[in-house]
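User: Could you check the structure of this?
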Amino acid sequence: MDAGSIPTLASTFKMINQITLTNFRNHTCSRITIDNAKNIIITGLNGAGKTAILEAVSLLCGERGLRGADIQTLARFNGDGGFSVFATTDDDSDVCVFLNSGDSNRHAKIDNENVALSELAKKLRIVWLTPKEDRIFMEAASDRRAFFDRLAASFEPSHMGRIARLNKLMSERAGAIKSGADNNWLDAIDKQISATSVSIAAMRIRYASEINYFFENGAVSVTGSVEKLVLENTAAVAEQKYFEYLQNNRELVGDKMVIDGVHKSDFGVFNKKLNLPAQITSTGQQKSILIDLILAHAKLIHIKTGAKPLILLDEAVAHLDSDARGKLFWDLNESDAQVWATGLDVNMFAGVPNALFVTCVDGTISNIVMAENKDA
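Assistant: Sure, the predicted structure tokens are below.
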């Protein structure tokens, strides 16, 4: 693939100039004015509220946030039960996510107009790494699928909708088999499962192909029975073959439905510098290749949309030695993104160019300093 084969889209995506957290986690009212900094470094002790700031930023793309927490748990303990995250973007537009006291769901506004949460993704594109992902290559395949599907959905929001639909259809299928539904009913469900599965597999393959163009130090692969069908056949033929597979596998094993499909596919990353699969490298090397992947993802977003996405790195330098940290800081400065990173020790970030350093203490912003090497 060459760069010319990756379609570009007209962009309205923006970066954040200022953000205000009100009654969010342990923050009563905290505000950060970015002052055109490219890298925002937030440091403080455990429990100071630095990850809460990243979580607040992550909500601004309309998702459940980098921790995937229940919405009510985001409101400040002993507060009124509500919260708000309000940001101004670099085109002087306003974006807000909020929960009113007594509500069960969050709401969104753009420029003071009520909008659906899904509309936020048209304003800000955000990707993140948390300590949970540091060992993603060693965890279950389901964790890797969730991680890479979220990345792929950055370019096709309907991808996550298809995955949710597939889960619903699979549940309906299991129920239909258990209840002894006739073949006509099962055929209708299986045709929907087949079409949805092929669409999911095709999007995964396309994303892996596109990200690998920019992923200089690694390569993403996706393996699975439906992905194999998509690679070897037209979409229509792949759908028909998977449908026939489903028709021939309608038995329950131990009261459970046992079938292969995109719900069992797996992703892998190969470290080209070490010439090794990521899962057999050290924890620090796994962290480094993950960061390389996220930076490649940012480049892909920039090429396809013209936008500079937001990258959120919680405990950014954990597991990284001094050489790896130096490379990270260089890459951050060269990236087509606004980067928000947290860490315990501000000294670990010495040398980060174009940076705004924010100190967080007990849910308050105690100090904000622009790096002296801002123009480095």
